[in-house]
Amino acid sequence: MSWDWQVFFQDTGSGQTYFNWMMSAWGWTLLVSACSLVVALSVGSLMGILRTTPVKAFVWIGNAWTELFRNIPLLVQIFLWYHVIPSLFKPLQAVPDFIAVVIALGFFTSARIAEQVKAGIQALPRGQRYAGLAMGLTLPQTYRYVLLPMAFRIIVPPLTSESMNIIKNSSVAFAVSITELTFFAMQAQEETSRGVEIYLAVTLLYFVSAFAVNRVAHFIEQRVQVPGMIGSGK
Amino acid sequence: MNLTFAFVDWNVVSSFIVKGFLFSIQLTLVAMVGGIALGTLIALMRLSSKKWLVMPAAFYVNTLRSIPLVMVILWFFLLIPLLIGRPLGAEVSAMITFTVFEAAYYSEIMRAGIQSVPKGQVSAGYAVGMTYAQCMRYIVLPQAFRNMLPVLLTQTIILFQDTSLVYAVGAYDLLKGFEVAGKNFNRPVEMYLLAAATYFVICFSLSMLVRQLQKKIAIIR
Asked: Has residue A233 been placed in a domain?
């Protein structure tokens, strides 16, 4: 077979080239990933913290949340938010598809992040919590000033790989016709029959995105490193 | 909207869902066995002292781990017919894809498992005259498998969830079974709910079993 990279300069039939379409699809991939990451980090941190509190009811809620969103495939969760929830609660039918996907991907990832946050907090010596409480800090203050600043620094590496996973997992949004990279790849392959060229370009963009996240995370890791710990470099 | 599950009887289950369920299980088992075998081989390559073995293995693992699974499924579905000259069908294509893809993940687990065996044991093996293959076969790999068994099984549960992504090439798996039934009875909402419940029950109980196993192994060790 022969290469035909001209395909990217063909018109899609709506006044733009396939290259333009791919760039806007890349934008959607990044936008879905970024918004989902915000949802996942906030909900995941909350659930992870709840799981380490001394209040049994909170622990139960955090555990239930994690198990629920970890044991259903992402694709099924996307269908739940896209098809099921709006038909059960009519007012939600006005919610755009984009939001449904962000919530699905965000909650799915929040279960994994909750697990990391819990592990990070539990990795700290028990004495730190007691010391905080003994100093007269309230429980929220102990978390805010003693436990969380250390816990989050410890879990930067696993959070990095979750952020990279979010970019990969955003590809599942093709199933509900969000025009992100994978959806573009499938459509453009069908329309032009130049699958290899298009898949190569899309795969490369996924690589670039994941690598960029990796570099940003590396930068953050160095900025927040704790002197004196293994891996702090100095 | 009112939910009704009244139409779901054994007839519906057996004509739509069982077929998909069996394929999902088959795909999971094929990819697990094939993936662990291939993954172990790749892990051994990565840990060898010869550079020409390490580099392709590292390339294999790093490449597959940075591409979304859906793209890998699409790639194989596109490339296999180009390479062998005839279409292979979504089901067989999915089995090859998942075996190759999961091998990258299993190989990282096996690599950690092999590295968890103390070095002295390998030296001891060589000292009593064992070859490399014998060392691996009788000393290192049995312990690596055993130490990593819970992690391998957890990865298999993730694999089972990921099989739903064959949706991209239209293979008839568990999720597809629910979807087709939902279309036939015009009750997609109920069917998606049932699909979620089915996946949840299966994955949750399996992960509970793995947790039990983990406790058991931890005590013996």
From this structure: no
Residue A205 φ then ψ, to 5°? -65, -35
The structure's pTM equals: 0.91
Q: Would you call A168 and B68 a contact, using CB atoms and an 8 Å cutoff?
A: yes
Indicate the SS3 state at residue A11. strand
pLDDT at residue A153 greater than cutoff 80: yes
Whether residue A232 lies inside any domain: the answer is: no
Q: In chain A, what residues touch B161 (CB-CB under 8 Å)? A: 71-74
Chain A CB contacts of B70 under 8 Å are 171-172, 174, 182
* Beta-carbon contacts of residue B159 (< 8 Å; ≥ 6 apart): B28, B31, B32, B35, B98, B102
pLDDT digits (tens, 9 = 90+) for A72-87: 999 999 999 998 988 8
Note whether B15 and B205 are within 8 A (CB).
Answer: no
Domain assignment of residue A26, yes or no: yes
Render pLDDT for A37-47 as a digit per residue (tens, 0 to 9). Answer: 999 999 999 99
Residue B84 binned pLDDT confidence (cut-offs 50, 70, 90): confident
Q: CA of A157, closest CA in chain B: separation in Å?
A: 16
Spell out the domain ranges in chain B.
10-220
Q: Which domain holds residue A23?
A: 5-224
Domain at B10-220, CATH homologous superfamily: MetI-like (1.10.3720.10)
Contacts of A218 (CB under 8 A, 6+ apart): A160
Predicted pLDDT of residue A12: 76
Taking the CA of residue B211 and the nearest CA in chain A, the distance in Å comes to 13
- Chain B positions touching A212 (Cβ under 8 A) are none
For residue A41, give the CATH number of its domain: 1.10.3720.10
